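Today's session is about reading a structure prediction critically. Students often jump straight to the picture, but the first step is always the sequence itself: look for stretches that repeat, for charged clusters, for runs of hydrophobic residues. Only then move on to the predicted structure, which in these notes is written as discrete structure tokens rather than atom positions. Here is the chain we will use throughout the hour.
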Amino acid sequence: MSFDVDGEKLRRLRVEKALSLRALGGITGVAFDTISKLENGHRPARLVTIRTLADALGVEPKELMNGDEDG
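Below is the predicted structure for this chain, in token form.
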């Protein structure tokens, strides 16, 4: 199951933490190009990925989700 990510919020939180795509990827183990695609709305994410990013950014996973289920 995958979920749509609020890419604008993901980007804003990343920038607020002064993290580049590569830095966030290094912290989370999520490929930087995957993070870029999430921020730009070009792919949905698995819940585990959303949780990992949310933990690194200090927010609840639901804050990164649009709430739409995609499959």
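Discussion point for the tutorial: The two ends are 5 Å apart (CA to CA).
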